[in-house]
Design goal:
The complex is a heterodimer.
Chain A: H1 2-8, E1 14-18, E2 22-27, E3 35-38, E4 40-42, E5 49-51, H2 58-77, E6 85-90, H3 96-109, E7 114-119, H4 120-126, E8 133-138, E9 143-149, E10 152-153, E11 159-161, H5 165-178, H6 188-198, H7 204-208, E12 219-223, E13 228-232, H8 234-239, H9 254-263, H10 267-274, E14 277-280, H11 289-303, H12 305-310, H13 329-339, H14 342-345, E15 348-349, H15 350-356, H16 365-368
Parallel strand pairs in A: 1-6, 6-7, 8-14
Antiparallel strand pairs in A: 1-2, 2-3, 4-5, 7-15, 8-9, 9-10, 9-11, 12-13
Helix pairs in contact in A: 2-3, 4-13, 5-6, 9-11
Chain B: E1 9-12, E2 18-19, E3 24-27, E4 32-35, E5 39-47, E6 54-55, H1 57-62, E7 66-72, E8 80-89, H2 92-102, E9 117-126, H3 156-184, H4 194-198, H5 202-209, H6 253-257, E10 273-276, E11 278-285, E12 291-295, E13 304-307, E14 316-322, E15 332-339, E16 346-351, H7 356-377, H8 380-385, E17 408-410, E18 417-419, E19 442-446, E20 449-458, E21 467-480, E22 492-506
Classes of the chains: A alpha+beta, B alpha+beta.
């Protein structure tokens, strides 16, 4: 029976998007991931939970990846990875060592038949059926801005900054500690829970008001593990996300990143980019973010001299709305990609990998020469 | 035996990873120790852990690895159970009908159907957090299982359109590329073609004969309405600054992620989630491709059809105690209990380095394996067909060195000793064993167990609080009842060895 099945039916490729905080996993040609799990693993030796990308040496990373993938295949997806095709959604500026180690784990340990790496920004746009857009990815450890025009990523205009969900968590922790909450209570899951259930991005008028407004109502938050109840002040609820919009001389807040990325592009594509901003990533699912970003951008265009000199004409920032939830938009792009024939033609096959034990990379000159190997 | 604490005695697996013996397997065909890392995991069968129903793999794939009947609570991920209620049913239409038909009759007798009947209705309820399907407005069902509606993905239609679009685009590109390649590099013919010289093309000739053009029909251009960017974005609700929020109505991140398609923020949008299946796993040796573990097919059975646990084949070493507190550079002794789990006597020797001839043997074995592999892959039939019919052998995993370093020197035992076979009936015998001449290091012996004393010296460089690790090689004879060759039927005896690492404890001051 298994032989018959494998011959008669093509097994759907597995699509993985291993993020810094959460991993999205599922099969190609499905409209949503099977599961979204934290990117962490339980060590078999000591039984403690550990972040996947928390490692000292490459061998350790390899072991952790093998353990993590093993859980994914045999606990969550319930398929054997052997002789299967894979789509991996990757950060285009991700570390080479992680990419190489992941490929080694898949090809050497799990014996997969091919792996297709797809860049997350580009593939996210495919869920809209457009080929031009300014993709803003607000993730856990960083926020990245990548302009894409006619299906080509404009690498020179790529911008990133370290504010992401991790920075927001740290800000919540800082503010709560200042109110006298015990540090032991504020674990990472608690901070995340506070963030997603109580916090929001406030409006531009309130953020820029000279005299403080009446803060939103405070919330009594019960920490279930410790039977403790802490007060979350209303000012915290509306102010933690301000770090994305903080004014500083570095000019590196989120609206500045967006505008600078647009300015780094050729002037012919700027208007198209302004009218097609696409915000993805789990960090962008907070209430009021898009509204705030839009009004900040419009304000900067009107008031900041630097931008006023460079942008001309009637400009209206326009935003795309993702078809699924923003936190798995990149995964969804991978699932679409895996459903097409690209999985046959563009994948890195096992034979090709074993020849050199190396993953071709756009930044590697060896792979980009015309007669390179 | 302490299951809860990590064992201080670890065996080096053939792949170089240390494991306690209860996590190791023993491949009888190789014959070597294997661990969970260096065996090939395979899925044996799918089953639901709640209703223990066996689900064939094709059905499991079709159902997205979910049980058809069991549901998980969206609130706390506990299993939901169906509760029955009785509802009074008023049968208006039937009564009306009966009234019409019953009118000509002289005395309409009260029929049982005219009585207020009751009907059983079911809803799902969580016994852990008391969430019910009524909380979110799912109507009760007449049948306990099978009729619960799935929450559908809102953008499924759009997704399907997108998928079709991209599939056509990619296919079109592929065709164009093929066409281009065909034109660019015409097939070199053995003989010069007439049409090449005369300038007649194939399509021209075909047209002259009156045939239709053979060229592929131009693929239809595909259209898709791309997404529209809008300037109006969702604004913050005005009451967010004034209305207090109720955390009980807002879902947590785990609840959102358990429903990945829509990830509701309001508790009222939670929906019972189909319970995901579990699997039974079989393990296969990567070297010789024999099964190490094969569970019984039925989900209710916890037995195995094939089980090659190391603890049933390899002598078990248990650390009993050290004779003196551990001091750097001071001679000490450790008491170890050896147990023979097999049905044959074992001869055991404790050495401080792996025996030379064994190493050579292992190399020779690998050499033999390689030759065999080459013979298989170089067979012309397989090459021509392009598929390897044999199961693909994945021995690519690099062997690693044992990382653990011993920091104590042991005094190897002066002679080997015999560990008697396991005999369950002997447990009940009166202890009438005649005292035999034992080597000096054996402290105590009963049945298949031996307690022995091993002298060692912790390294003088160790500081207070450092852990002392002993390492030795245990060489043992293993009687193999299965043989790879057909002509030999009687069991063969191998001299095997395993490296054992013992965490004896910390240096005391």
């Amino acid at each position: 029976m298994p032989l018959y099945e494998s011959v008669m039916q093509e097994k759907p490729p597995i699509v993985l998007d291993i993020g810094n905080a959460y991993t999205k996993l599922g099969f190609a040609a499905e409209a949503y991931p099977r599961l979204i799990i934290p990117t962490e693993l339980v060590l078999t030796t000591t039984g403690e939970t550990k972040q996947l990308f928390d490692y000292v040496e490459t061998d350790q990373l390899y072991d952790q990846l093998v353990d993590f993938l093993q859980t994914i295949f045999f606990k969550h997806l319930l398929v054997s990875p052997k002789e299967r095709k894979f789509v991996l959604v990757e950060n285009i500026f991700g570390q080479t060592v992680i990419r190489e180690t992941l490929a080694r784990a898949l090809f050497m340990h799990f014996d997969v038949s091919s792996v297709l790496f797809v860049p997350s920004h580009l593939t996210a746009l495919s869920t809209l059926a457009v080929n031009t857009g300014l993709v803003v990815d607000i993730g856990y450890s960083e926020t990245t801005v990548m302009p894409v025009f006619s299906g080509v990523q404009i690498m020179s205009a790529f911008k990133d900054h370290s504010f992401g969900s991790r920075a927001v968590h740290a800000e919540i922790k800082r503010q709560l500690l200042a109110t006298g909450v015990k540090e032991a209570l504020l674990t990472e899951p608690v901070l995340e829970d506070i963030k997603i259930r109580t916090c929001f991005v406030t409006s531009l008028e309130r953020a820029q008001a000279k005299e403080p407004h009446e803060p939103p109502p405070s919330v009594a938050y019960a920490i279930c593990d410790d039977d403790a109840v802490i007060q979350i002040p209303g000012t915290l609820r509306e102010s933690v996300y301000e770090l994305l919009f903080e004014q500083s001389n570095e000019r590196d807040s989120l609206p500045h990143l967006v505008l600078r990325a647009i300015l780094d592009c050729n002037r012919d594509v700027r208007r198209a980019l302004i009218e097609s901003i696409f915000v993805i990533g789990g960090g962008s699912m907070v209430q009021g973010l898009l509204a705030r970003l839009k009004s900040e951008l419009q304000l900067l265009l009107a008031s900041d001299k630097y931008y006023a000199d460079r942008f001309h004409g009637e400009l209206q920032f326009k935003f795309y709305h993702s078809i699924g939830k923003q936190n798995f938009t990149a995964w969804l792009g991978g699932a679409l990609c895996g459903a097409t024939d690209l999985i046959q033609s563009r994948s890195l096959s096992k034979e090709a990998y074993l020849r050199h034990e190396h993953v071709p990379d756009w930044s590697n000159l060896c792979d980009n020469r015309l007669n390179g190997n | 035996m302490s299951f809860m604490q990590p064992s201080p005695v670890k065996y080096a697996c053939s792949c170089g990873i240390l494991n306690p013996i209860n996590k190791l397997f023993f491949c009888r065909h190789c014959p070597k120790l294997r661990c969970g890392f260096c065996v090939c995991h395979e899925i044996e069968s799918h089953f639901c852990s709640n209703c223990l129903e066996n689900i064939p793999s094709s059905e499991a794939r079709h159902k997205k690895n979910c049980c058809a009947n069991c549901f998980d609570c969206p609130c706390c991920q506990h299993t939901l159970s169906a509760r029955a209620t009785t509802v009074a049913v008023v049968r208006k239409t039937e009564e009306a009908k009966e009234g019409e038909s019953g009118a000509p009759e002289a005395a309409p007798s009260p029929k049982p159907s005219a009585m207020p009947t009751t009907k059983k209705m079911y809803y799902l309820s969580c016994l852990s957090c008391r969430w019910t399907t009524r909380d979110v407005g799912i109507p009760d069902q007449g049948v306990a299982t099978g009729t619960w509606p799935d929450n559908e993905c809102l953008y499924q239609v759009r997704f399907n359109t997108l998928m079709e679009y991209y599939q056509t685009v990619v296919l079109q590109e592929k065709q164009e590329k093929q066409e281009f390649l065909r034109r660019k590099a015409p097939k070199p013919h053995k003989f010069p073609s007439l049409t090449d010289r005369t300038g007649l093309t194939v399509s021209l000739i075909r047209r002259q004969i009156g045939w239709t053009d053979k060229s592929l029909p131009k693929p239809k251009p595909v259209n898709i309405t791309s997404a529209e960017a809008t300037a109006d974005v969702e604004a913050l609700p005005a009451d967010i600054f004034t209305q207090p929020i109720n955390l009980r109505n807002i879902t947590t991140i785990a609840q959102r992620h358990s429903q990945p398609a829509d990830q509701p923020t309001a508790v009222s949008k939670l929906y019972p989630q189909r319970r995901s299946l579990w699997i039974k796993r079989s393990l296969r040796c990567r070297q010789c491709e024999h099964n190490l573990i094969k569970p019984e097919y039925h989900p209710t059975s916890i037995k195995y059809r094939i089980q090659l646990f190391a603890s049933a084949h390899v002598p078990e070493v248990v650390m009993v105690r050290c004779e003196q507190p551990l001091q750097p550079g001071q001679s000490n002794a450790i008491l170890l209990k050896f147990t023979n789990p097999t049905m044959y006597d074992m001869t055991i020797s404790v050495l401080d380095a792996p025996p030379q001839e064994v190493q050579i043997n292992a190399d020779a074995f690998q050499q033999a394996c390689r030759i065999k592999e080459e013979a298989v892959t170089s067979s012309p039939l397989l090459k021509s067909s392009g598929v390897t019919l044999a199961r693909q052998n994945s021995t690519r995993e690099v062997k690693r060195e044992v990382k653990e370093k011993a920091n104590a020197t042991i005094v190897p035992l002066e002679s080997e000793f015999v560990l008697n076979q396991r005999d369950d009936s002997k447990e009940f015998d009166e202890d009438v064993q005649a005292p035999i001449e034992e080597p000096k290091f054996i402290v105590w012996r009963k049945g298949n167990k031996v307690l022995l004393r091993l002298q060692f010296t912790p390294s003088p460089e160790l500081q207070t609080g450092n852990e002392v690790t002993l390492a030795f090689c245990m060489q043992y004879t293993y009687v193999n009842t299965v043989t790879n060759t057909q002509d030999k039927k009687e069991p063969t005896t191998h001299a095997l060895y395993s490296r054992i690492f013992i965490h004896a404890g910390d240096i005391v001051n």
